[in-house]
Design goal:
Number of strands: 12
Low-confidence stretches: 1-12
Shape: globular
Strand order of the largest sheet: 2-1-3-12-6
Strand content: 5-15%
Mean pLDDT: 91
């Protein structure tokens, strides 16, 4: 009853705020999540539009927002042309080049007035650049290890691995079958995001303190890649390439073709939709592995939402009002339960109904517990170019089995040249 009352009261307030307008204020919202995630986001936007008559949001999928993907490229082109949307979803680590362009609205002066407060610890950091708050969290995540508990039990393994050495040992025990019936112990994700975690959790660093030199090719940072490449070479792991590498990885797990992989809490929507009966009640999540003797570090992931600075005042007010509605517990908990992403606010995370949901679905509590180990890599204006170079290096290492040290040294040298430009 409490949430329903809030929504009705909020709708009245929204209508009053924009009553001077004879027709709804039209908002354009670009987002970068496809499949089930995009469908859930569209359902939330439709709920907002139906809850009041003052603002109408049109949400448009622009392709993936990750890894310098289509949405990021379209946003950069829109900024260059001046034809920007009113607000947009943005990958959590990609803020610097957009903030540096001067196109984003500093949300700091508006946060209190529009109730953009109460976020879970650490989630605002990736939306901050040079002392200004340009983004607020929405679909946030940390990398997690997904594993098949039934396969673990059949192999006599009591618990998920916590170190890369344990993961390698478990992957060998879990691999079985041949040909089209082969089940791999582990699927490697050749992606910059888990790479951040395994680099930082092995005692490595990504940049020096001033952010002017790449350090990720140092020996301690290479060990997790060497372990994964050895699993691939020996036939205990699989890897996907191409534009659908992420969803192919999730599909393998959902179809029972692999026992473990590292992914996003947001993968759970796809797992639920595609899981075969033997996986449907057997999948679990756990902390990502770290290297022996080092502290776990998990990078922020998922997306934030930004508002563009030069949109008309009425659109800016409407966008901020929509953001306020979007972070309320009713929307946040629905989003989290449907997708697996973290609820963004303390109120949503501690809402009684959501706590009951976590008790019934303990795997969804793992990413919330992992937040205490969150550590972002230093923000860098060359982030988009750097991560593309890293992903090309990872593809060379895992897809083509190129030497780990030599390949990452080349990527680091390329990154140094970028930062020196």
């Amino acid at each position: 009853m409490g949430r329903k009352w809030w929504c009705l009261a909020s709708a009245v307030a929204l209508s009053a705020s924009f009553s001077a307008s004879a027709s709804p204020v039209q908002l354009s919202f670009w987002y970068g999540l496809g499949g089930n995630l995009g469908q859930t986001l569209q359902a939330i936007v439709a709920k907002f539009n139906a809850s009041q008559s003052a603002i109408h949001v049109t949400a448009t999928y622009q392709g993936s927002y990750s890894g310098g993907g289509p949405e990021q490229q379209k946003l950069l082109a829109a900024i260059a042309s001046g034809a920007v949307p009113d607000l947009a979803q943005m990958e959590a680590n990609s803020l610097p080049p957009f903030a540096q362009s001067g196109a984003l609205l500093d949300l700091g002066p508006y946060r209190k007035a529009y109730g953009l407060t109460g976020f879970l610890p650490g989630l605002l950091l990736s939306g901050r650049y040079q002392g200004k708050q340009y983004a607020v969290p929405f679909n946030r995540s940390v990398p997690v290890l997904f594993y098949n508990a039934a396969m673990f039990k059949a192999a006599g393994i009591q618990s998920p691995p916590t170190t890369w050495s344990q993961l390698a040992q478990d992957a060998k025990q879990l691999t079985h079958g041949q040909g089209s019936h082969k089940v791999y112990g582990f699927n490697v994700l050749a992606d910059w995001w888990p790479w951040e975690s395994w680099t930082l959790s092995s005692g490595g660093k990504i940049f020096n303190a001033s952010g002017t030199k790449a350090l990720f090719a140092q020996p301690q940072a290479l060990r997790p890649m060497e372990i994964q490449q050895a699993l691939l070479r020996e036939g205990y792991a699989n890897v996907h390439s191409g534009v659908n590498y992420w969803t192919d990885n999730v599909n393998d797990f959902a179809q029972g073709k692999t026992a473990m992989y590292i992914g996003s809490p947001g993968d759970t929507a796809q797992i639920r939709a595609e899981a075969v009966p033997s996986v449907k009640n057997a999948w679990r999540s756990a902390f990502v592995p770290k290297d022996r003797g080092h502290a776990l570090v998990v990078p922020p992931g998922g997306g934030n939402i930004v508002v563009f600075k030069n949109v008309p005042k009425v659109q800016r007010q409407a966008a901020l009002t929509f953001l306020h509605w979007l972070i309320q517990p009713a929307q946040q908990d629905y989003w989290s339960e449907q997708t697996g992403y973290l609820p963004a606010t303390e109120a949503a995370a501690h809402a009684p109904a959501y706590q009951r949901y976590l008790k019934a679905n303990p795997s969804f509590e793992v990413p919330i517990s992992e937040l205490r180990y969150m550590g972002a890599m230093p923000l860098n204006n060359h982030y988009l170019q750097m991560l593309q170079a890293v992903e090309q290096g990872l593809q060379g290492i895992f897809d083509q089995r190129r030497p780990v040290a030599t390949t990452m040294q080349q990527v680091a040298a390329r990154t140094d040249r970028m930062m020196g430009e």
